[in-house]
Design goal:
Layout: E1 8-12, H1 17-28, E2 32-37, H2 40-49, E3 57-61, H3 67-81, E4 86-89, H4 104-131, E5 135-140, H5 153-173, E6 178-185, H6 192-196, H7 203-216, H8 220-232, E7 237-240, H9 242-253, H10 259-272
Helix pairs in contact: 1-8, 3-4, 4-5
């Protein structure tokens, strides 16, 4: 999809971070925007920031874990914009906790948002995307899709699943002129780790990780620019950040040995508790 002007783009998780940056980048391309988030204040702030962009914007309050709400959402957006051409399944959460210490409720939260949210988005929006004649789906995965990270079992699980889902859909939907791209960010300067502290886990370790991400991570605006280029070039995947490239190449070159330093780091952290 070379020209995005006039296309309607749906962005979940648009109330902050990557979603907000994607919305801004898409507005600059001349897209109509349907912004989706569970946080009304965040949605309002994103809409306010886009007020000068000249792009038509609607906001839609939705929890991507809610099947009934996600089923109703495409018709609501199509009624407001006339058509749907681009779907960015971007909403995501994480909890920094070992699998053993994770509650079922914590696991359900991460899997619900990161995986079921993507599945619901793809499933319920697909008929509308097919009607558009040409469309594109972008699913936010992670560098965690390339190797399982300690204290991130549920997050790594969901992001690997999103990667595989995207690869399957890319083949299946090509005959319908629908492109599918999975994006694999490394450390990005968002509030995902700050939000993670609200759901439990090791608060001190999460705070240290959050500080490192804010210091060394990529700005979400740079990510958004790369994602827009990936859509225009119909790429199957887009690794974002040198840490994402390194994670994948390390897993390719040292598929077993790469986990030794991870085991060492996890054991050392556990000994400090």
């Amino acid at each position: 999809m070379r020209d995005l002007r006039g296309r309607t783009a749906v962005v979940t998780g648009a109330g902050s971070g990557i979603g907000r940056a994607l919305a801004s980048a898409l507005a600059a391309e001349g897209c109509r925007l349907a912004l989706v988030d569970v946080d009304p204040a965040g949605l309002d702030e994103t809409r306010r920031l886009l007020a000068g962009a000249g792009a038509p914007v609607t906001t839609h309050l939705a929890d991507v874990r809610d099947r009934a709400r996600m089923a109703a959402l495409p018709a609501e957006i199509a009624a407001a914009h006339g058509a749907i051409h681009l779907l960015f399944n971007n909403a995501g959460v994480t909890i920094n906790e070992s699998f053993e210490n994770s509650s079922i409720e914590q696991l359900e939260l991460v899997i619900g948002v990161n995986l079921w949210g993507v599945l619901y988005g793809c499933h319920y929006f697909l008929p509308y995307l097919k009607q558009a004649g040409e469309a594109h789906i972008v699913n936010t995965s992670s560098m965690a899709a390339f190797l399982g990270l300690p204290n991130q079992a549920s997050y790594s699980l969901t992001k690997a699943a999103v990667k595989s889902l995207s690869e399957s859909l890319r083949v299946e939907l090509a005959i319908s002129n629908i492109g599918v791209t999975s994006i694999h960010p490394g450390a990005i300067q968002t509030n995902i780790l700050k939000a993670a502290a609200r759901y439990g886990g090791d608060a001190a370790q999460t705070a240290r990780m959050e500080a490192l991400v804010q210091r060394f991570g990529m700005a979400p605006e740079k990510l958004a620019a790369q994602v827009v280029r990936a859509v225009k070039r119909n790429r199957m995947r887009q690794r974002i950040g040198i840490d994402s490239y390194l994670a994948e190449w390390a897993k390719r070159l040292l598929p077993v040995a790469i986990h030794a330093p991870l085991r060492w780091a996890f054991a050392r952290a556990a000994a400090r508790r």
